[in-house]
Amino acid sequence: MALPEQQNTPRRFYALDGLRGILALSVMLSHMVGVVTGWSEQRPLIGAYISVIYFFIMSGFVLTYAHKTNHKFLYFFLLRLARLWPLHCVTTLTMILIYAYNSRHMGYVAGHYIFDWKVILQNLFFLHGVTPHQFPLINDPSWSISIEFWASLLIPLIFIRIEPFKRLLIAGTFILLLCIQSAAGFIDMSFRGMFPFLLASSAIMLGSAVYALLTPERITKITTKNSFEVFLWICLASCLVGIYGQFHNKLDYLYILPFIPLMLIDFQPESSLIKKVFLSQPVQFFGFISFPLYLIHSSAIIIGLQYRSDSPVLSILMAGGLSIVISYLYAAFIDIPLYRAMKSKIKNLCHTP
Questions:
Q1: Which GO terms describe its molecular function (predicted)?
Q2: Contact assessment for residue 327 and residue 296, using Cβ atoms and an 8 Å cutoff
């Protein structure tokens, strides 16, 4: 059962937008701190890889809501392609150009594979992590984008056709089995390299099940309790603890649990403090630029112009500031307008109202 369209359902999950922005910021800062600390295992935000699993869960939740009344596979496929591929293409090609410049000016180059046309095409066409064939990434964060694209297609194909409680049970079972299989938490390449895809699919299915289980009665029963606000803050703190310091072991899976209630922040009353925080302008700003920020920050890192060996903090601030500015400009003037235009054309093509 899907939550009916009424006052209980927000037209857009703005608090989740804000949460997504905070998670994208954590990934960016984790990578930048890693660069200036030599990727020390004691560095802050070493657990930001957990944020990527949270992205998958949110995608399952939001996409199930967005497509609950339209199960046309072609429409879903084209919308996901329009949303994810343009930025992925732009950032991949930008990384290649920066590496080409660096190679001519004694700068950092990850490897000669960067200029291999086969590797470039494999990166561009979302092939990483969805087959047993492995190849190097040009833009490291893009591994999750290709996996999310293909795994999200399971929503209209399979997930929404499964009764919500069974969907939750299946997702939980798969996640438990993956936990048992992996000794290194979320970072595992077993099943011939297909482990990340299986994990992403299970996380997306979990998010889909959580949304499908919502009813007005359940929402009212949960959100009208004063203790639920405190519970949400505890859940948020737990997730942030994991992002700050968790490091590749079976405890990774434990941090999935406190994230699930956070998807209900948008259903909180307007007086809710945690809702006000995530709807605040600074947090919403990061939500607005979250997708570009996630993929663009690697380019800011490899440019190297901001790196100051005498001041790691200044290096992070400069590279982070550059990433944020470019991400905003891209989101405001390219990403959002382009997606809206493509979405309109896709609706006309698929005869969708």
A1: acyltransferase activity, transferring groups other than amino-acyl groups
A2: yes
CA distance linking residue 267 with residue 58, whole number of Å: 15
182: left (phi over 0), alpha (psi -120 to 50) or beta: beta
Give residue for tokens 């996640």: 175
Q: Say which residue the tokens 């199960």 belong to.
A: 71
Q: Which domain holds residue 217?
A: 14-349
Please state the domain count of the chain: 1
CB 131 within 8 A of CB 191: no
Measured in degrees and rounded to the nearest 5, phi and psi for residue 145 equal -70, -45
Each residue's pLDDT tens digit, 12-55: 999 999 999 999 999 999 999 999 999 999 999 999 999 999 99
Q: For residues 311 and 68, give the distance between their C-alpha atoms in angstroms, rounded to a whole number.
A: 50
- Domain assignment present for 179: yes
- DSSP symbols for 295-353: HHHHHHHHH-TT--TT-HHHHHHHHHHHHHHHHHHHIIIIIHHHHHHHHHHHHHHTT--
Of 58, 54, 17, 16, residue with least CA distance to 285? 17
Around Cβ 99, how many Cβ atoms within 10 Å?
A: 21
Q: Which two tokens stand for residue 242?
A: 């994991």
pLDDT along the chain (353 residues), means of 10: 54 95 98 93 96 99 88 92 98 97 90 96 94 93 97 96 97 98 92 95 98 92 90 98 96 98 96 97 98 97 76 91 98 98 95 75
Both structure tokens of 89: 């293409």
Q: Which residue has the tokens 């299915």?
A: 205
- Considering the entire predicted model, what is its pTM? 0.95
Is 7 part of any domain?
no
Contacts of 162 (CB under 8 A, 6+ apart): 170
297 token code pair: 């920050």
| CA nearest to 205, candidates 89, 59, 310, 349 | 59
Residue 8 lies in a domain: no
